[in-house]
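Summary for the steering committee. The consortium agreed at its last meeting that each partner would contribute one worked example illustrating the joint modelling workflow. Our contribution is presented below. We chose a case with several input lines so that the handling of multiple components could be demonstrated. No manual editing was applied between input and output; the record is shown as generated.
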Amino acid sequence: MTGVITAQQSETLQRILDEFKGTQGPLIQVLHQAQDVLGYLPAEVQSAVADGLALPLSTVSGVVTFYNFFRTEPRGEHVISICTGTACHVKGADRMIDILRDVLGVGLEETTQDRRFTVQGVRCIGACGLAPVMMIDDEVYGKLDRKRIQEILALYE
Amino acid sequence: METIRLKIDGREITAQAGQTILEVAKENGINIPTLCHLDGVEDVGACRLCIVDVHGQLVTSCTTKVGADMDVQTQTAPVKEYRRMILELLFAEGSHVCSFCVSNGGCELQDLACDLEMHSVRVPYSFPRNRIDATHPQFLIDRDRCVLCGRCVRVCAQVEGAHTWGFAERGSTARVITDLAVDWGQAESCTSCGKCVESCPTGAIVRKGASNAEMRKKADLVGRLTERREHE
Ligand code: SF4
Ligand code: SF4
Ligand code: FES
Ligand code: FES
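What follows is the complete predicted structure of the assembly.
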């Protein structure tokens, strides 16, 4: 394997594959563990999994893309979940997304170059009274505007 | 083998246990429309066009086995209406402008629209814009013409054994892919055998450079192949 993952990660992946070899229907568990260790499942990892379990490439790809849980793109250190639910939509969720794009240079479902932040949209997180709302990892931030977003992001620099 | 007596469209029919309703109907000259069914590969019940009424319940005849004293109706008004609606949804979901299609006149989807008397499409078209993948040296796929029947997936896996085709994602973004969703030309498992081309019921997978007159598919090829394998 070349490129995206390190030699050490590749060794770990091999260990996971060895552990599950010969067991019944191991694909999802292997992908699960591989993503735990590597953070995401790029093509070279999927291809190593297919080789290791002697499965068709198209089967591995089918499973990876079927479940939302699996990611084929790397994730940032922190995940910003911007609420696009009804209340937040009314209170300007779209503007908040624009502001984030201004400040971070990325839109929904994208990760910053320095891999610090991944931005994603989520449906109502149950804090409608504070709309517009975003979460960074497990922390909720409400009543957003440009100034507040900038202040909050600074906490994660 | 156990013999079973049942009724199809009021006719008394004898069948073997284990046969599907579709098989038995065919043997008796009763026509049920199908799209995802392909002789020679397993049935999966993907398209739902082969639905029939069994004691007031709708079931897919390609995947339902005959049972003793079954009363099967293949042409009731509701059954025909459901089939037409399924067909309209397939047309609305893809981009099927027959006059621009290399399979015009040789397309199972088009034939079904004629047979089922689909006069118009009552739901809005979704106008998908998938990129055409023409990276394979001999074949190409236009996913806007794909009806997700999975015939390519099954024939490639079950008959050729290459497993090149698979399904990716789900819902409205579901599509067929080759290997790790790479361009077909890059798919290392493909042996270029052409069975998926012959099996695809629409103009989705076709031979490159073929004219409309040349692009006539041999959908019965796979059935004939597998039959001979069994008798070897
Ligand atoms: S040409 Fe043959 S091997 Fe290649 S994708 Fe089609 S059926 Fe599979
Ligand atoms: S490409 Fe053709 S054979 Fe394959 S799923 Fe689509 S319509 Fe069916
Ligand atoms: S809509 Fe955003 S928190 Fe409820
Ligand atoms: S032919 Fe039976 S469901 Fe498609």
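Helices of chain A lie at 7-20, 27-38, 43-53, 57-66, 86-90, 93-104, 146-154. The interface with chain B takes residues 43, 46-47, 50, 56-62, 65-66 of chain A (CB under 8 Å).
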